[in-house]
């Protein structure tokens, strides 16, 4: 005898997991965004300093 309840439970579990994954994908992550912003700011500060030090070395 085949128990169809386990198949339905598996389908429902899969739906719940997919729904949860999609919601998680679009959840705001303020600390991650702040980290990216700080990283870009550090790169922007270092970039002119590296160009300037390279110009003096080439002169």
- Average pLDDT, rounded to a whole number, is 81
Query: Radius of gyration in whole Å, from Cα?
Result: 26 Å
Estimated structural class? mainly alpha
Number of strands: 0
Order of helices and strands: HH
General shape:
rod-shaped
What portion of residues belong to β-strands?
under 5%
Please give the share of residues in helix. over 70%
Tally of separate helices: 2
Distance between the termini: 86 Å
Domain count, please report it.
1
Report low-confidence residues grouped into runs of 5 or more: none
Question: How would you describe what is shown here?
Answer:
The protein has 2 helices and no strands. It is mainly alpha-helical and 59 residues long. It is rod-shaped and about 75 Å long.
Give a quick summary of the entry.
With 59 residues, the chain is mainly alpha-helical.
Give the helix/strand layout.
Blueprint: H1 4-25, H2 30-58
Index terms:
59 residues, single chain, 0% strand, 2 helices, mainly alpha
